[in-house]
Amino acid sequence: LLRTILIIILSFFLAGAQYASKEIDSKKWLILEQSVIENKVVKSLMDSLATDGYEIRLLAKDFPLVGIDEQIIESDYYTLLETLAQQDLTKGIVISHNKASAFQGEILPLPKNIQWLSINPDHKQYLLKVSTTNQDSLQLRYGYTDANHTYFTDKVIPKHLYNDSLAVSYPDTITIGIYNTQNFIYDRQIIEAALTVIQQKLNAVISVQTVDDPLSIPKTDWLFWLSDKQAPAYTGKGIVYQKAETTKLIDQVKSDRWILTQRLNQEVATQKHLTATLAKLLINTDSLTARALSYDRSFLVDSLAFSLPQENQAAMIYAKGPRKSLDFILLILFLSVLLTERLTAYLRKQ
């Protein structure tokens, strides 16, 4: 039995056994996304956990203390989680709105010392865009977003009734030249129908010109080349018909060149979302997208937000806190048991 104990102790010694030091000061954080602070339940929890020794911090770069007057720099959740894992916390509790747009990059597992709680955001209705329709009217585009839905509606009002602070936008005119041979007349009609929808729905101004002479192409923002003939060199952006085996109806091949990969009919235009694809190419919506994302309330459930840790993954990536070696204790124990075993063996021989 004593020899068995010796072997066990020696195994622990060779394996470099360690234990978590109890001398470490407790370091506990409650980390809140700024948008959840006014929630009544969260306020109550803040008071309770502050009494229990938790520091109340913001879910933002460098995790500033709540109430400290300094610039708040937001970041995506996974980047913040990686940084949080390096803070040597005894316990961390995160409360967020789990905005789908804030989960960027490779999905990560939660560290064992971090608890992530999510709260459904309240719904939000906002004014996305105001644009002119004619001299007397404005078109207002409203956005509605909650945890499960996002949609937009349009409303036309007289100019004198508008009293919001959002600046009125005046649409630029997009000029398009279309060249087509006789066998592409129907393709052209499909494209022109899509452009008409874009004008109506996005309040865009699109001017279409017919290119009669392929050797004398007028200067336009875009050229649509609908022909089996090879398109000549020209300046500006262009969409050229070129049959290709791809799932995309319009595929980018250069910085200013796209190819229309198949012939058009109503079925193809509908199934391949021709109108939406053209709208995305023709209309610059970067500022609108940024504004919509700033109000976005789309919610990602915890089960989809974080991956399950693989074996030993959490320990390897998120190992926290200094640990102390058991070598000295094991050495003393080993020598004591060895001495006892030798004495026992000696006495048995007497």
How would you describe the overall organization of this protein?
The protein is α/β, with parallel strands linked by helices and 350 residues long. The chain folds into 3 domains: 119 residues, no CATH class; 49 residues, no CATH class; 115 residues, Rossmann fold (3-Layer(aba) Sandwich). Helix content is 31%, strand content 25%. It has 10 helices and 15 strands. It has a 6-stranded mixed β-sheet, covered by helices on one side. The chain has a 4-stranded parallel β-sheet with strand order 3-2-4-5, covered by helices on one side. Helix 4 links the parallel strand 9 and strand 10. It is elongated, with a radius of gyration of 33 Å. The relative contact order is 0.15.
Keywords for this entry:
4-stranded parallel sheet; Rossmann fold; 350 residues; alpha/beta; 6-stranded mixed sheet
Please give the number of β-strands: 15
DSSP helical segment count? 10
Most strands sheet: 6 strands, mixed
Instruction: Give the SSE string.
Output: HEEHEHEEEEEEHEEEEEHHHHHEH
| Terminal residue distance | 20 Å
Number of domains: 3
Can you tell me the residue ranges where pLDDT is under 50 for at least 5 consecutive residues?
311-322
Q: Fraction of residues in helices?
A: 25-40%
- Chain-averaged pLDDT: 86
Rg value = 33 Å
Bulk shape: elongated
Q: Strand share of the residues? A: 15-25%
Class by SSE composition: alpha/beta
